[in-house]
Design brief:
Layout lengths: L1 E2 L14 H12 L7 H13 L3 H6 L10 H5 L9 H10 L2 E8 L2 E11 L2 E4 L7 H4 L3 E4 L13 E4 L6 E4 L4 E5 L30 E6 L7 E10 L3 H6 L7 E5 L10 E3 L5 E10 L16 E8 H10 L5 H13 L5 H12 L1 H4 L1 E3 L25 H9 L15 E3 L2 E5 L6 E9 L12 E3 L12 H4 L11 E4 L14 H15 L5 E4 L7 H12 L6 E9 L6 E2 L8 E2 L3 E9 L5 E9 L5 H5 L11 H4 L3 E4 L1 H8 L4 H4 L14 E2 L9
């Protein structure tokens, strides 16, 4: 951030930790720009030791596009493809100067476009919506190839449309008007899409900063800084969260507040926000030393920004609006748009209602899920959830002796802490399906398990809380899956089918959903898999559940029994009888799949080019059984060896499903 009326450095936000200055100076001095072979060897070893190294490798482009990509990140080479400069110019177009009026003149900071008409900068550049409404974003203020300084193209900010700020993280998102004062369209300047996962840089890797330092025309520090990894013990003492902040050395003027910090693939690693002065050069809070010497910079990790936004998604409406635009930038359908489509299509709130629990005698002779349904395979349900049972994460039934709720042809196991299903398991006999007739949208609690483990209408109905969103009651076992019967008598078979359908309308089979995939994407998938099953015995077993993460967002603070943490992704493992002696397995994830590490191992991004809108629209991927185990903590060892996807090379083990012909089984 710079000043038009005062060219001192008092506007640079500086760390106030002498210990941090000492620590980063020590690391920075150990890495000169020109290094000996021994020094390169040390850098290579340090990069490989970084816990994010494997994921960083997966984000590199292919050798055909960038032959020296691997060598650069381990410090063996500085060579790169000539298109590096062209792509850098494209990335730089999205960076702008932010003009902030103040007493006696203007302040300037840096910002950059990250989504459809969405700008990212620091909280200390734009701290509130009223201030932002008086500011403008100036694009193209830079020297052209002939050295001529171009006039900036000014766009007004629209905080009344989108404005999210967080002082602790020092981030602000704000909407921008679609046209400049002169009618220039904003989309001309492109955007720098944000990738949510951590791991886009490793210790010692070079980074680039595009900036408007001190209110000057746009400048770039190309690979003039290196990632610095602090000692975790020291970071703990200094109360620095290394999962939120990243440090990088510099021997140049510090990057402007709000500038993007980028790796060699022009992916944004961090939002620059602080300079780290040399020891003894701290100055006073709010004012840098008269002649500071800067040894490093600090940025906010993009992954940390996403994590905070997701945590506030259902409690802070503006956070949800920002995430919608970031999703759209990646080609995904915005969650709020999907929710509106779901409510409009189903009209759920109008006709779904609660009824009193059924008498448990209904299931006295019902076995539920059959572990021996697919001969000659046996898949014991308890073995699958045993790791979580050992951690006391599985809710017991009221009789104290069991954990599985048996329904007609399926069973459900409840997560004790999250109070939604941990896993459901259903057997499907494709040759004995019987349509149950008209859908009965009546939901009930199950009297066999405590009410606390089955959120009901108090959770789902909009009128019973002040939350800005409403969730659908999402079937984990879809309502048609258990609707089959081996009985030859048509009336008796229909009655059994209807019992199976009614059983799916229990809160022990429901999880909150904001998308329409349950009966559409999942249903199409299961129908396709049944079609692939053995002709004489169309049998299929489906295991389904949410992916529970520690940082899932909260919802329903004012609701009875709240708040709850809301799962954003769901998984499915399908096992089908492909031949008389050959069962096979396939694993799938749907939902906020941008948070699945396996997706990034599949090289989703090539430079700045994500998958197409059509490829990402459904958020449905096929992955490996092992990936599901990693995400959930469940044990699918009984079917792990049956997964054809698991035998593929690592970069193809996770892939988008655009239509059912893409499924590998």
């Amino acid at each position: 951030m710079g000043s038009e009326t005062d060219d001192s450095l008092k506007d640079i936000v500086s760390t106030q930790s002498e210990a941090l200055s000492t620590a980063v100076e020590k690391v920075a001095k150990a890495d000169a720009v020109y290094v000996t072979p021994e020094g390169r060897s040390r850098r290579r070893a340090r990069a490989r030791a970084d816990k994010r190294f494997d994921l960083r490798l997966s984000l590199l482009e292919s050798p055909e596009s960038d032959p020296k990509g691997f060598e650069r990140i381990v410090g063996d080479s500085d060579l790169m493809s000539i298109n590096f400069l062209d792509r850098g110019k494209k990335a730089a177009a999205a960076v702008c100067r932010i003009k902030v009026p103040s007493d006696g003149g203007f302040w300037y900071g840096t910002g950059f476009l990250v989504g459809p008409r969405l700008l990212l900068t620091n909280h200390h550049v734009l701290g509130n919506a009223d201030e932002a409404s008086q500011c403008s974003a100036e694009f193209g203020y830079e020297h052209d190839v002939d050295g001529v300084l171009s006039e900036p193209v000014r766009f007004n900010l629209r905080p009344h449309e989108v404005f999210y700020t967080n002082a602790e993280l020092d981030v602000t998102f704000v909407a921008v008007t679609p046209l400049s004062d002169e009618g220039v369209p904003l989309h001309r300047y492109g955007r720098l899409p944000l990738i949510p996962v951590s791991g886009k840089a490793v210790d010692g890797e070079w980074v680039t900063i595009i900036q408007h330092p001190g209110s000057e025309p746009k400048q770039i520090a190309i690979r003039a800084s290196q990632i610095i990894t602090l000692d975790p013990k020291l970071a703990l003492q200094l109360r620095i969260d290394l999962d939120r902040f990243i440090h990088y050395s510099t021997d140049t003027e510090p990057g402007s507040s709000g500038a993007p910090v980028l790796n060699d693939q022009w992916q944004v690693l961090a939002l620059h926000h602080k300079a780290v002065p040399a020891p003894g050069r701290l100055g006073k809070p709010g004012k840098a030393a008269k002649q500071p010497i800067w040894v490093a910079n600090e940025g906010i990790r993009i992954s940390a920004i996403f994590k905070q936004l997701e945590f506030e998604r259902f409690t802070t409406p503006q956070a949800g609006l920002v995430l919608d635009r970031l999703d759209m930038s990646l080609g995904l359908t915005a969650m709020s748009q999907a929710a509106a489509m779901s409510q409009g299509a189903v009209g759920e709130a109008a006709f779904e209602a609660d009824r009193k629990p059924l008498d448990p005698v209904r299931w006295v002779n019902v076995a539920g899920y059959d572990p021996a349904f697919l001969a000659p395979l046996r898949i014991d349900l308890r073995r699958i959830y045993q790791p979580l049972l050992a951690q006391n994460k599985v809710a017991a039934l009221l009789d104290g002796s069991r954990h599985e709720l048996a329904y007609h042809h399926f069973s459900s196991v409840i997560h004790a802490g999250r109070k939604f299903p941990l896993i459901t398991a259903v057997n499907i006999d494709g040759n004995a399906l019987v349509h149950p007739g008209k859908r009965k949208d009546t939901w009930r609690r199950d009297a066999r398990i405590a009410d606390e483990f089955q959120p009901d209408g108090d959770f789902y109905e909009k009128a019973k809380g002040s939350d800005p969103v409403q969730f659908s009651r999402g079937h984990q076992v879809r309502l048609l899956d258990p609707c089959w019967s081996p009985l030859s008598n048509a009336a008796q078979a229909l009655a059994e089918s209807q019992l199976g359908s009614e059983d799916t309308f229990h809160y022990t089979n429901a999880a909150p959903q904001v998308q329409t995939y349950n009966d559409i994407d999942w249903g199409n998938l299961e129908d396709y898999l049944l079609d692939k099953a053995q002709t004489s015995k169309k049998r299929l077993t489906i295991f389904t559940g949410p992916i529970y993460r520690d940082d899932d967002p909260l919802y329903g603070r004012t609701r009875k029994g709240g708040p709850w943490q809301i799962p954003l992704s769901f998984w499915k493992v399908a096992v089908l009888q492909k031949s008389a002696t050959k069962p096979v397995a396939a694993a799938f994830i749907v939902g906020q799949t941008q948070y699945v590490q396996a997706l990034y191992e599949a090289k989703v991004f090539s430079g700045l080019k994500p998958y197409t809108v059509d490829e990402m629209r459904n958020r449905l991927i096929q992955t490996t059984v092992v990936s599901i185990e990693t995400e959930t903590g469940l044990d699918f060892s009984a079917v792990r060896s049956l997964d054809a996807h698991g035998s593929l090379e690592a970069t193809r083990q996770t892939r988008w499903i655009n239509d059912m012909s893409d499924v590998l089984i």
